[in-house]
Amino acid sequence: MGYRFRLGIRPKLFMGFSIITAMLVISDALSILEISRIGKQVRRLLSDSYQSVQYCQNMLQAFEGQRYALLENLGADSARRIELRKAFEQASTRFKFNMALAKTNLTHESEDLLIDSIERYHAAYLQQGYMLLERPQPSLQHYLELRRGPSTQLYGAVNRLLAINQEALYKGSTLLEKSPQQAMRPALIVIVVACLFTFMFTHLISHYYVSPIIHITEAIRQHLKFGRYRPPQTNSHDEIQDLREAIDQLVEAHQEERKKR
């Protein structure tokens, strides 16, 4: 007879339950990794978007300071006009500083072009703003011309940039709400596979262990009641087969003893 690989009941059961346990551990690990990955992405998105919102709000405040200085300059005396020019320059510096920060903190592909537009509009606004400050007698008409031109374009561009980042904040918060569900998807797949394996493992136990034991028990009962013994079939090469062979030998010995009597 050729060599047959023999694997006992204990190793088989151990392997089966070990696989189920490994699948459950893998599902937990996948969930933890997915939650960590999504959490990092969401935190980075929220942080960058929040900073960009702050930069936009600072730019709008600086822009309002520039417009206020130009408007008050219309009826100011020479001493006050010097102070207003300094205030205009300080507001311009704050605007450029926050614009530079926003340019290094891009969260959307369209922001780059938008910030370039803001930079151009602000340069044009500064040029006309300084021209208005240098006029000996600036008029309201000059101020309104400036406000209808680069001022409106600059204000609109900054608000569009603000809206983009506010929308990114909303999307980030929505993604944060949905992240547990997304993180559970790979784990659910592993759990479903584990359930299928558990069903198959239970079926194998029933087919290779429970059913043979039932057949062996029924064969012994038949032998005890009617003296007939039909060796039950076993499909496994393990302790179940050893048990059947031992019972076969016992029954055979019992039958031989009966014949001698």
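Second entry:
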Amino acid sequence: MNPLLEHIINLEEDQKYQEAYEFYRVLYSANKLDYDIWKNFYIFLWLALEETPEFFQEKINLQSLLPTMLTEGKQNFSTLADFNFIAGYTVSILPYEFGEFSTMEDEATRMLLKAFELDPSNTIYRMVYLGNNSSKSEEYLKSTAEAGPIVLHKFAGAGMLNKYFRQVLFRLNKE
């Protein structure tokens, strides 16, 4: 992992959001084609909607920056299953933050399907796609059991991205 990205993740852990943002901005502007940097910065911004004070959101123009990051992600990473999963998931949760509600909701569903189609063996993508469409089906319930240990392993690291996805994707005993 990029050493500066590691430093930023430590700043996230310490809730030093302004400092983390400044480092992300510099790192991302110099590495716009690095998916790992885009993904962490994008999730940082998405979670900033709930985790940061309104004055911080206004200062960085979050309402404009987040949709811009999504657009840049689509331009640069749309062939990656993980991009479609991360973007599709975040848009499905807060579609109104990215544009017209029903349009973005449909786009989120398409991205989640594309992630699953690009990597049909990925248990997490399968679980989220099924949960987005048929959360009470037998197939979905089976997928939550299969994905549980994988979620804990894949998102075991530090930082806002890992913490968030551990919480929301580990669905055993939550249904």
